[in-house]
Write a structure and sequence with these properties.
CATH topology of the largest domain: D-Maltodextrin-Binding Protein, domain 2
CATH superfamily of the largest domain: Bacterial extracellular solute-binding protein, family 7
Shape: globular
Strand order of the largest sheet: 9-8-10-7-11-13
Oligomer: single chain
Distance between the termini: 95 Å
Largest sheet: 6 strands, mixed
Order of helices and strands: HEEEHEHEHHHHEEEHEHEHEEHHEHH
Radius of gyration: 29 Å
Number of strands: 13
CATH class of the largest domain: Alpha Beta
Low-confidence stretches: 1-41
Structural class: alpha/beta
């Protein structure tokens, strides 16, 4: 009786344990399929899909930067984050991109902060800072720019909150190469530009052209070739890269070399941002990866523009027949001095009206930071 009772207890205990384990198993061993049963398959997490809007086309240095960023993020998150790029204003026009990111129409954007001073008043200070300090185009120019901006953010709460107020987070910043006037005629003095119609962009280049005595005209870059070929414009503000890309030398061959000292490299002109609400839904690991890749993309872009300039110059002055010339250096210095005083004050007054009384202090610290780091 004792053995039989003990055996019954063991058997009952075995079945009770099996029943409990089977009932409480977190993942079902089998699932119904209508025609029978099969082993359940583990569910693969779906990737987070984001859309990045931009005004640039599918070719060129800017496209290369964007492609580097999106491919590296996908690779380093093991496919956890997939970013689709919508090129050539397909998601929003260039002037609408900041609002598109802020409102969430775009999850991310590669945009032009310098076009929207009211939206990015501190990122855009570079437009006046470079009259006081010449920033050389080095391979690490974008990394220096990020460091300068972070220093300003530490010193001024209004700078730190600049992107947050726009419901955005900054992932990278990218420099605009030095510019000059590419024209249909060669001159020996800036005074000979008086009355010319010169295609400009943004807030600051029209002021520079006006200070010379020429007339700034607003023409999209893609329409500038036709404007110069038809005589609607006598010249254009241009970089080596845009001159090469849009084949401007077919209609305008004269490049004023030393005017680039008045329109030198502009850090912060381009930026990559993400919608803050979307950003906050990402894991900390994914955020860290995207910030790291954004900084690397900024560094890559600096390397590419520094390396590409000699190649562009060689082809433009060789195969494409571009002619380099200079105006008197004294005229360049006088123009820089004039712009330092007038343009800086105009900018400060404009930003001060937005509710930022310390903008002059920010500009001064910005100048000091570049002098220390360049």
């Amino acid at each position: 009786m004792f053995l039989r009772g003990k055996t019954n207890c063991v058997i009952a205990g075995f079945f009770f344990t099996f029943l409990i384990c089977f009932t409480l198993a977190p993942i079902p061993l089998f699932e119904s399929t209508g025609g029978g049963t099969k082993l359940a398959q583990a569910q693969t997490p779906q990737p987070i899909k984001l859309k990045l809007g931009t005004f640039v086309g599918v070719k060129g240095l800017h496209a290369d930067v964007i492609n580097f960023f999106t491919s590296e993020v996908k690779k380093r998150t093991n496919g956890g984050v997939e970013i689709e790029t919508v090129w050539s204003e397909g998601l929003a026009k260039v002037m609408e991109l900041p609002d598109a990111v802020r409102l969430g129409t775009a999850d991310m954007a590669y945009l032009l902060p310098a076009y929207k001073i009211e939206t990015y008043p501190f990122l855009s200070t570079t437009m006046v800072v470079h009259f006081s300090v010449e920033v050389p185009v080095t391979k690490d120019i974008n990394l220096k720019a990020l460091k300068v901006y972070r220093q300003l953010a530490e010193q001024f709460p209004e700078v730190k909150d600049e992107l947050k107020k726009q419901n955005q987070v900054l992932l990278g910043t990218f420099t605009y190469e030095p510019e000059t006037v590419l024209s249909r005629k060669q001159i020996s003095s800036l005074s000979q530009m008086k009355g010319w119609k010169v295609r400009t962009w943004g807030f600051m280049t029209p002021k520079i052209i006006s200070a010379i005595g020429a007339v700034p005209v607003s023409i999209p870059a893609v329409e500038t070739y036709d404007a110069m070929s038809k005589g609607v414009a006598d010249g254009t503000i241009a970089t080596l890269e845009t001159t090469h890309r849009y084949k401007y030398t077919e209609v305008a061959k004269y490049w004023c070399e030393n005017l680039t000292r008045v329109i030198p490299a502009w850090p912060f002109v381009y930026g990559m941002t993400a919608n803050l609400d979307v950003w906050n839904k990402l894991s900390k690991d994914f955020q860290g990866i995207m910030l790291k890749v954004g900084e690397e993309a900024s560094g890559r872009h600096g390397e590419w523009i520094a390396e590409s300039a000699p190649a562009y110059l060689k082809e433009l002055t060789g195969q494409r027949g571009m002619v380099l010339y200079k105006v008197p250096d004294a005229e360049i210095e006088a123009l820089r001095t004039k712009m330092t005083a007038t343009a800086t004050e105009d900018y400060a007054q404009r930003v001060q009206k937005l509710g930022y009384p310390r903008i002059r202090d920010v500009i001064q610290k910005h100048i000091e930071a570049w002098k220390a780091i360049r």
